[in-house]
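Chapter summary example: a protein plus manganese (II) ion.
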Amino acid sequence: MKPLSELNFDLHNHTSASDGLLSADELVHLACRNGCDALSITDHDTVANIAAAQKSAAAVGLRFISGVEISVSWMAAGDIDRPLTTIHIVGLNIDVNNKILLAGLQSVRSGRIRRGQEIAKQLVDAGQPDIFDDAYAFAENKEMLGRTHFARALVARGIVPDIGAAFKRFLTQGNPGYIPHRWASLADAVSWIRAAGGVAVIAHPARYKLSSTEFDALFDEFKVLGGQGVEVVTGSHAPNEYAAAGARCKAFGLLASRGADFHGQLETPVEPGKMALLSEVDRDLVPVWQLFR
Ligand code: AMP
Ligand code: MN
Ligand code: MN
Ligand code: MN
């Protein structure tokens, strides 16, 4: 039998229930074609597509693990001068009917329309009339309007060539269309995931602009709260970032996760199941899926 770290588990993907472009069924078929041994769907702040994905996965014989990606606002304890950092926490193998989790996710989603209106106001001032309606039309799940939908609207208008450029010129700190937002606390996100019987995983650590002291504080706090894993191989990291993420994972005694963070073919650098295996980064990494047997 293959070591677990050689298995092609892809545990971070989005569907149109949040800011992905594919339906649950399309994503399941893509993961299947790409030879995934297991797939998780981890939409932002919603589990609306998990039941549909479970059904599709069962129909094609693909192992499926329920998931979610929770938006968190985090501040290192005592670091009151610094603005909050947005951190994403993935919850895997969750009971999607758990009431504590569902109420928590609902509370995280609740500010998104108001935030979207404020984003739109700034973009209108920057010369993009009626942009709210365009972005809203791109959001299939109306509760889940996010910056990606605004980015797609800007691309559709020909203002920017692609999503990446949209996030360079707009929607990010210091640019038009950036509204600081208060998401869940780290403690709440981890506790909702645990209440639902799931495993909490820090998503794409290399994406956060934190000093090494702040990283240590985040990982320490996460572990104390009961967090268990961190993504090492993700489509949101460049391949040259895998080794450092793997070293930090081991240093903190966390389990390693892997996922494309797939949103769509023209938007994400890699398709589900198409990244390096954990064993190719470091044979000593312990995959988070060892908990799922
Ligand atoms: P929101 O939760 O509405 O703030 O949107 C966050 C989402 O925007 C992330 O999950 C990514 O899908 C997308 N995003 C953020 N920054 C970038 C970027 N630089 N390039 C492409 N997509 C991005
Ligand atoms: Mn996203
Ligand atoms: Mn994320
Ligand atoms: Mn994601």
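Key point: The mean pLDDT is 97.
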